[in-house]
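Final paragraph of the annual report: two paired records, presented back to back.
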Amino acid sequence: MATVPVEYDLNSLVPGEENILALSGAMKVLEEPGERYNPFFIFGPSSVGKTHLLYALAQRFTDTYPNWKVLALPAGEFLERCEQAWQSNTKVEFRQELWQLDALLLDDVHCLLNRPAPLEELYHTFNRMIADGRQLVLTSRCAPADMIVLATPLRKRFQSGLVVSIETPRGNLIRDIIEQRCEL
């Protein structure tokens, strides 16, 4: 169910002090999906590797747990699917599709702020998946605590698992990334 671009692989992520906590968290999530680090919330500025890490996790879930239903998608696509379901009166079917997932990975959840229908669906899906021990992975440009316009219950749920930041690469990490790209 996860459509993951080939270039997003955990082995192609270059570790550095700016992303090591996120990479370590991802490995823990893979060891114990749906357990202690649920949800796994990754935040940071654009172009620091959040999307790469999210889709790499989706790929590893798919490889490690071949019977799992894994859905990885940008929040914009989640928004479109949700609004289409609400407009076509297929809300129940949409919700059931989400509730059958073993792992839901949403990229750029900040794009859902001020969107009541998708946030309501995410809230219900979040509650159901956590209660059933299924894994959620979310990325955003901002930390949950900074999502002031987000309803408090959902913001608290975003903060309830492992929240990590990825910083803009500097110095050695930039050099290492460039070297890796040149080798590829």
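The closing record of the year follows.
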Amino acid sequence: NDNINGPHMARAKRHYIPEQIWHITHRCHKGEFLLKLAKDRRRWLQWLYQARKRYGLTILNYTVTSNHIHMLVMDDNLRDVIPKSMQLVAGRCGQEYNQRKKRKGAYWEDRYHATAIETGHHFLRSLVYIDLNMVRAGVVNHPSEWSFGGYNEIQRPRRKCVLIAYKKLAELSGFDNYDRFRDSHKEWVEELLKDGINSRQSEWTESIAVGSESFIEEIKEKLNVRAKGRKAIGAGTAFQLREPVSRYNAVFGIKKEDIGDENSYSWDINSVFSRG
């Protein structure tokens, strides 16, 4: 049994959209630092590898912090790949931790949050935002110093225990050559670190979708989200699909206070990617 939050492990009420990219966030119960030990973060990654092997989960980036995880994944195969993968990883990690600590109770917040991401510069922004998570937290000065994120795997592809779909990642980033993508990826990160553009962005953890206005409308239609109470926020080419808290909870079943980022600021890095 892979469940840890009860007989029917709750998950985000999401729909399958072929080829859709999702930024997934999942937090430990009540924000507790249940992933503070390296061995627990390592086990999360090991179970993520098992999810990739068992279900064919397409992973584009990831990071494991002390109290939550971020993942960039894609609907690329069967309808239930993402929810089955999340249930496996979250359930097994929670079980192992509780058994080791002789602990009872929920390990994770009931549901993970999934934000639909448009390809192009929105995808690249989300990719690098995940890379810089622990720099924002003040834990490291550079993402290469954090062993539990995708940055090092992107920069030095593995031959064994591969998590990231390298070819697909380069393709979605607009490159037909992985080495060129890798060089550009490194430049994007270095430029943002140099410019000090690394504020928290609530759009990745509180929105239903992030992208152009036309993309937002497309996602609303595909998810069958009723227009009333849900509106696109933004201007130019950057929009988010937001909604009132009550409706937000109804669609995704998530408690807003459990997933929100405090002190969120606008993070406009489109110029960085356009220069690349």
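The first strand starts at residue 21 and ends at 27. This concludes the annual technical report; the extension proposal builds directly on these records.
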